[in-house]
Amino acid sequence: MMRSRRDFLKTTSLSVATAALPPMGTQHPVPHSFVPKKTPTIMLRSSWRDANIGDQGHTPGTLRLLERHIPEVQLLLWHAEPRPETEKLVTQNFPKVKIVRGNFYTGDTLSDELKAAFDQTDLLIHNSSQSFNYGLYNYEWGGPIRALTPFYYCYDRGIPFGIYGQSFDKFAPPSQYFFRDILNRAAFLYARDNESLNFLKAETFHPSILEFAPDGCFGIDIRDERKGLAYLKQAGLEDGRFLVVIIRTNTPHFNEKGEGNLLNPTKPTPGQQEQDRTRMAKIREVITHWVRETGYKVLLAPEVDKEMPQAKNHLYDQLDATTRQKVVLRDTFWNADEAMSVYARAHSLIGMEPHSLIMGLALGKPVVHVRSHFHGRKGWMFRDIGLPEWLFEVDESPASAWIDQLSKIHRDYPAAKAKAQKAMAFVQKRQSETMMAVRKIVGLPSTK
Length: 448
Fold this sequence. Notes:
By secondary structure, this protein is an alpha/beta fold. The protein folds into two domains: 5-219 and 429-441, Rossmann fold (3-Layer(aba) Sandwich); 225-411, 3-Layer(aba) Sandwich (Rossmann fold). It has 16 helices and 13 strands. The strands form two sheets. The protein has a seven-stranded parallel beta sheet with strand order 3-2-1-4-5-6-7, sandwiched between helices. Strands 10-9-8-11-12-13 form a six-stranded parallel beta sheet, sandwiched between helices. The longest helix has 29 residues, at 413-441. The model is unreliable at 1-34 (pLDDT under 50).
């Protein structure tokens, strides 16, 4: 029996102002479906940083899934902070999507634009990220509170909400009680890795839907062919004859004004600096072997803007002269669409960051991920979509293991591409299944 939004409101005792919540551990009812307006509206909260093409890539990826599988809905994209570069990608590739702007602290201080957007919304989706953690990188409450407060606002008004393709890593006490209370009210929690899913189950989370769904970035298909092809020509990179290398170091963001965090320390410790030197030595070993074995080039590509000088200092400048002739250093930052056009012409990708590799897989390219456990559980998603052989621990595994895997990919490239395509077939199946669940939540019939 379908449940109306008005009926749901009658059962709701929560308000943002009073926070009068039911007892902990209660199974919280969520409207799985209701009689929608003629055109349901879904609001996607996304676009975490412009200076990270992975954070850019979540947005067009999930928007494409929503457009493809739920074309009947009106889509709103919520940018809590200014994101001019991501907005360019959206306006160029998703002309029907309306962008709404404004931060959210309490229900009483919403801008008129944001309040009107919530009044129109039939489902709020928080896109892929690591927003719902406490104690992973720091013990600041501001980020988690800003992520959770809109859910209370939605719950108070009978608006279903959910989280798509998220990693959950740590709820330091007593935060688990707060996270559990509101997230148990969600229409869905889709975790992008099975480690996160098992973590939530162990912490007794039980929303209406608790399942695996790939990171939203897997849906990306946008390109900037004009810029991408021009760059390939200028850099002397030939189609199918270069390896993309992506690094991540223990260094601060550009223009960092605060104390940073474990992932981006403002003042790296001697131990963190030594860790970078060790990791980059392994990457140099991979680059040198690749050039000598294949004769192909290497592109040092940035997923995050801060890594361009690090790639120069730790990699490019320290290679021997012969190898360096085959290496291209990208020293200007780019947006996700240009990166996609370049990655589409790569042979393969290897990286410490996951989202360039996701883009590569979406383009049918073999990838090798050398993950750091400091980055949380998200790296396990490559194992969980069927690619355990292409996943390594950056500190625990030797460079020779990465080299062996790249050599296997190169020696039987058709088989490696077929492996990537099989993984993407699994991803696309889960994307379709999760989007069918979203259709039901906004009152639309399945398309199957």
